[in-house]
Automatic annotation (TrEMBL):
Belongs to the amino acid-polyamine-organocation (APC) superfamily. GO terms for cellular component: apical plasma membrane. Keywords: Cell membrane, Disulfide bond, Membrane, Phosphoprotein, Transmembrane, Transmembrane helix, Transport. It comes from the Eukaryota. InterPro entries: AA/rel_permease1 (IPR002293), AminoAcid_Transporter (IPR050598). It is a multi-pass membrane protein. Its main location: membrane. One of its GO terms (molecular function) is L-amino acid transmembrane transporter activity. This is b(0,+)-type amino acid transporter 1.
Length: 508
């Protein structure tokens, strides 16, 4: 249908040109075509405020409301725990600074995938494209869909929490089913938002992030108030009980850095961000918020109370907010929904770029003709996430590949150093000191070895097996470029059903 329309339009232009016998008419016809038909490409809709909200929306998920107890338990003391949170924020900031430079050198969506493609792609015919393919394979097929499923299940949990006193006698099976239904409805809503419009996503995300920051500020203000009235008993313990175990301290850093994960997110959607350097605003802001919220928790709650609490923020709210304590679970629910919305938004752009480069099926690089969103990629992520939600408890599945994140971060730092040699002439509006990517590389190696050394669980070998499956797919479909006939049929049906077309790679 699209090809026929283009053919008729071309015949019309040629007839006008022949009738007028004038090159001026041809130029006018081309100008009219350019004016009336928008470019089939992603648009730069995210300004400074929206891009900052995007990063904050991913970084501040459920972690800061639920998991500070893990770092406290592993560090053993209030003071050491606060230091660990500050250091985790600093490490994340250093990584973010390096990614800001990468975003100016490789102005394409895809984050680590795009950087691997640019740095390693031309080094070797077989090994060069492999890192970027494995990156897209892990992120698109398992890691991000499973992460969205866990986040949206957490959203469902906290939506139900205010009503738990009224449904306490409900059988556990019925309650779990209800939570899954709510999670699926939430998934459907966020998938619809990402499918329908980038502008709608921006409005929803900005609203949710603003409310999320309001809840964070509420916790911080209440903590400051408790400090001002003299509740310093818990903080006065300082380093008392600090852990001397390198293993426990390393795991404390690991849990803290996991809470900060998301600082690289804006570089996954570079083609839709007007100012990628916004990463240098959002990460320090999140670091300050995390530090102050932990300080607030520790002001009100004792160490045993924090460690025993399944959701620290909820216990904190019950202690200081009284009848208004429902604001905390509501805030966590909105926070997790906004986080899931942004994670899905991010990974669909990675899927889009990988499809454009031939590392995913071609149909996933197509965009909607009117909405200019990567509709096939959005729908695929919705389906994968739905399968993970139905599967139930998938946190162990995320453990299979979560430690791989820092492998990709380390690989991105190596890519930065390589491109400083191979792309010396590219303009770099922003450039970090060499020691920063080198330092992040050592941190990445350290964090990737921690779980294997301290807990040599079979799940890490399963993660490596999943990578092996990716290599098995890479050899025939990417390296040898074998294209089964069913792929062409699949692409055709996707075009017809979703009204999508190939995108233009340049951006406005």
């Amino acid at each position: 249908m699209v090809a026929q329309a283009k053919s008729e339009y071309g015949m019309h232009n040629r007839s006008v040109s022949l009738a007028a016998n004038s090159t001026e008419v041809e130029v006018i016809s081309e100008d009219l075509q350019n004016e009336t038909q928008p470019k089939m490409q992603l648009k730069r809709e995210l300004g400074l405020f929206s891009a900052a909200n995007f990063i904050i929306g991913i970084m501040i998920g459920s972690g800061i409301f639920v998991s500070p107890a893990i770092a406290l338990e592993r560090s053993g003391s209030v003071a050491l725990c606060l230091i660990i949170w500050a250091v985790c924020g600093t490490i994340s900031l250093l990584g973010a600074l390096a990614f800001a430079e990468l975003g100016t050198v490789v102005p394409r969506s895809g984050a680590e995938y795009a950087y691997f493609q640019e740095a390693y792609g031309g080094l070797h015919r077989f090994w060069g494209p492999l890192p970027s393919f494995i990156c897209s394979w892990v992120y698109v097929v398992v890691l991000r869909p499973a992460e969205v499923a866990v986040i949206i299940l957490t959203f469902s949990e906290y939506i139900c929490q205010p009503f738990m006193p009224y449904i306490g006698d409900t059988p556990a099976e019925s309650l779990d089913l209800s939570k899954k239904i709510i999670a699926v409805l939430g998934l459907g809503l966020l998938t619809y938002i990402n499918f329908i419009s980038v502008k709608l996503y921006v409005r929803v995300q900005n609203t949710f992030t603003s409310f999320k920051l309001f809840i964070c500020l509420l916790v911080i203000i209440l903590g400051i108030y408790e400090l001002c009235i003299g509740n310093t008993e818990n903080l006065s313990k300082g380093f008392e009980g600090s852990s001397a175990s390198p293993k426990m301290l390393a795991l404390a850093f690991y849990s803290g850095l996991w809470a900060f994960d998301g600082w690289s997110s804006v570089t996954s959607i570079t083609e839709e961000v007007k100012k990628p350097e916004v990463i240098m605003i959002a990460v320090p802001l999140v670091t300050a918020v995390y530090f102050m919220m932990n300080l607030a928790y520790m002001t009100v709650l004792t160490i045993p109370e924090m460690i025993a609490a399944p959701a620290v923020a909820v216990v904190f709210g019950d202690r200081v907010l009284g009848v208004m304590s429902f604001l905390i679970p509501l805030g966590v629910a909105l926070s997790t929904f906004g986080c899931a919305l942004s994670v899905q938004f991010s990974v669909t752009r990675l899927c889009f770029v990988a499809g454009r480069e031939g590392h995913m099926m071609e149909a996933f690089s197509y965009i909607h003709m009117q909405r200019l969103t990567p509709a096939p990629a959005v729908v695929m992520q919705g389906i994968l996430t739905f399968l993970f939600i139905v599967a139930g408890d998938i946190s162990s599945l995320i453990d299979f590949v979560s430690f791989l994140i820092w492998i990709f971060y380390g690989g991105a730092m190596v890519a930065l150093l390589i491109m400083r040699k191979t792309k010396k002439n590219i303009s770099r509006p922003y450039k970090v000191s060499t020691w920063i990517p080198v330092f992040v590389i050592f941190i990445a190696i350290f964090l990737c070895l921690i779980p294997i050394i301290t807990d040599p669980s079979p799940r890490y070998f399963l993660a490596l097996l999943f990578i092996g499956v990716g290599i098995a797919i890479y050899i025939p479909l990417v390296y040898h470029r074998w294209r089964p006939q069913w792929m062409d049929k699949f692409t055709f049906y996707i075009q017809v059903l979703m009204e999508v077309v190939p995108s233009e790679q340049d951006v406005d």
